[in-house]
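Run log, item B.
One chain of 707 residues. Sequence copied directly from the ordering sheet:
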Amino acid sequence: MKVHHTYTYGNFVLLRGQPFPFGARPIMGGVNFSIYSSYATAITLVLFKKEAPEPFAEILIPREFRLGNVACITVMGLDYEDIEYGYRVDGPYDLKAGHRFDRSKILLDPYARSISGRDVWGDTARVDDVYPYRARIVEDDFDWEGDRPLEIPEEDLIIYEMHVRGFTCHPSSGVESAHRGTFAGLQEKIPYLKSLGVNCVELMPIFEFDELDNPRHNPLTGGRLFNYWGYSTIGFYAPKAGYATSGKLGGQSEELKALIKELHQNGIEVILDVVFNHTAEGNENGPTISFRGLDNKTYYMLTPEGFYYNFSGCGNTLNCNHPVVRNFVLECLRYWVSEYHVDGFRFDLASILGRDPQGIPLQNPPLLENLAFDPILAKCKLIAEAWDAGGLYQVGSFPDYDRWGEWNGKYRDAIRRFLRARESLKEVALCLQGSPDLYEMAGRRVSSSINFVTAHDGFTLADLVSYNNKHNEANGEDNRDGANDNESWNCGVEGPTTDPEINALRQRQMRNAIAILMVSQGIPMILMGDEVGHTQQGNNNAYCHDSELTWLDWNLLKTNVAFFRFVKNCIAFRHVHPVVRNRVFFRNKDYMGSGYPDISWHGMKAWKPDWSDDDDETHTLAFLLCGKHAKEGTVRDDYVYVAMNMHWEAHGFELPKLPPGMKWHIFANTTMPAPEDICEVGAEPELPEQSWIMVGERSVVILVGKG
């Protein structure tokens, strides 16, 4: 008979715990806790009854329960559903050595799978709470009913970048009032996403954050400002409670899983926008929440003086290529894939993930390589925002290991300049082909290019054509924040106008942008609300506004019904025509024996593009896609011809001749008023004149050649 030496604390029996996995998990008869720290001299488990102001137990973890740098303890007789937990950690306070241990602080477990404290969006935090963000324990027992990640081919994706709260918070959303701004509200709107035609939603940060950590007020209204976007993570394993109708009851995990399951049932993938470049603890003046008090020297990049490197622009920078931190990131993403069935991740300021502990860019960053080759993440989409706030810009050169895609900021800028008739046509042609100059030359895929004209960070599409300058006065930073180089054009008047000609031009420019985006090779991404002309009144950095400025106004579906129809039909066109979403780069030659190159370039004269960059150039370009060169594995496609005239005068375009038996049919002409601006896919009328077409000033025409 074996006799085990046991410890007790009151009525609880304490046993040496299992060191892995880190975090807290229920076991038969109790709870196992495991926490890492390289430099701690002692670790105390602190237990609260849910929402109790003071702990009911503080258990010093015996040294015998430590294995290496991991303290692990099993508390028998503990009801995990009725507790919150944290840690006090003893150790040196030596700034130059990188240590900031403070036993007076109760620390959040970085592996906490549920966090209380911000349970209801915008509710005032408990004043003088000794432990404001509290770890809770959840059981991962959701019934997925056979669901799994969808694994849609990358080139077939159409991404819709969205904010969970902003999507349904407006009273016009029509969702159940209690569901506004929540995962459940988004779930109610899945039919809308399907009707639009997108097959992937990219959710802005949903990891737990504190929306109240912005101290500023709106100088124009006096109202409080928020951390609305959520790029300031508190808990990397915990979905945001304030985004759940059941957050007060700790039901955010179940609600998010129900949303993802139904999105999958409707053929829509889920990509999470994740922030591993910094945390909510900020610089040396910020709060001690978790990492700083657990193992500051390990988790953060520190200067020789013990201060924080700030490559994120947010006060601190995670030490991502330290082996411990690298494992933390990897395990976190594995958790979201295995437990939440997410389909991929977009990494905010991803270039930071390739820096060494001193901030120097690495040739072969271990974290990026690990993520690329991890067997559990093997089918996940990995998307990098390939720059950071420290000046590292890696669009086209991000270490990709044949796995990573990139937000193509160069595409965004080039297309914006083209819409203003200020871009080289050669540059535009490269963007339309998926930027082979950036990706093919590096041995990468067409789908490495995530194409976008707008994103959450910057002007909306409606504002891009309505404002020359940012108008961020309401942010409380004297209009200093936000980008200044927007490549926008107000079409003649700054902001709203009653001038019908200017408003017509703005609508045409918006249609031009969507049309070009949807016929470009690569993966298109559109911003929530752009499909109905949402405006932020010229604010290009609306990170702090939880109001109708950022909420999607669903009334726009009625007032901008014609533009919504245009966007919807352009998306449908992309789905139907594989020739605009190839798996491989164009060769610019005929390798199928069709008599036509896979892509050919034209100007106002067929087969004669004008590549000149003279000041008097006409800013016209056209291209023809041969349907017999459509991506492998698909039925051969129609021919697609796109004519783009960004000149301020109309021009006639000579059309290339089609093979015998085929005719040109008109799908879209942005110079025409609705509903003549676009047709239903498959119902395109035959073009009366088959040899040429007039393309209006600042307009795009899309033709389909078919029998």
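Observations after the first pass:
- The first strand starts at residue 7 and ends at 9.
- Residues 139 and 580 are 45 Å apart (CA to CA).
Flagged for discussion on Thursday.
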